[in-house]
Amino acid sequence: MGDRIELPPLHEERLPNGLEVVVARRPGVPLVAVRLVLPAGSALDPVRGEGLASLVVQCARRGTKARSGREIDEAAEALGAELGASADEDSSGFGISAPAESLAPLLDLVLEVATSPSFPAKEVDRIRRREAAGLANLLDEPGAVADRAMLRAAYGAHPYAHAPDGRMRHLARLQRADLVAFHRRYFGAPGATLVLVGAVDPEKALALARRRLAGWKGADSPPPVPPAPEPGSRRVVVVDKPDATQVQVRIALPAFARSSPEYIPAVVANAVFGGGFTSRLMEAIRVNRGLSYGVRSRFATSRAGGLFFVSSFTKTATAGELVEVALEEARRYCDGGPGAEELERAKAYLAGLYPLSLETHDQLAEKLADLRLFGLPVEHVTEYRERVRAVTADECLAVARRHFPLDGRGVVVAVGPARDVAPQLERFGPVEIVPAKQVV
Amino acid sequence: MPAVKTPTAPILELDRVVTHTLQNGLRVRLLPERGLPTVSWYTFFEVGSRNERLGLTGISHLFEHMMFNGAAKYGPKEFDRVLESRGGTSNAYTSNDVTAYYEDFAAEALETVLDLESDRMRSLQISPETLEQERQVVLEERRLRTENSIFGLMEEQLESLVFQAHPYRWPVIGWSEDIERITREDCLAYFRTYYAPNNAVIYGVGDLEPDATLRLVERFYGDIPAGPPPPPVPRGEPPQRGERRAAVRYPAQAPAVLVGWRGPEARNPDSAALDVLQTVLAVGESSRLRRRLVEEEEIAVSAHASWGWRIDPGVFLCFVELAPGKDRAAAEALLWEEIAKVSTKGVTAGELRRAQRLLRSAVLHELATHNGVAHALGQAEALLGDWREAGRALEQYAAVTPKDVREVARRWLDPARRNVVVVEPERSGARSKQEPSRG
Question: Would the pTM count as exceeding 0.90?
Answer without folding.
Answer: yes
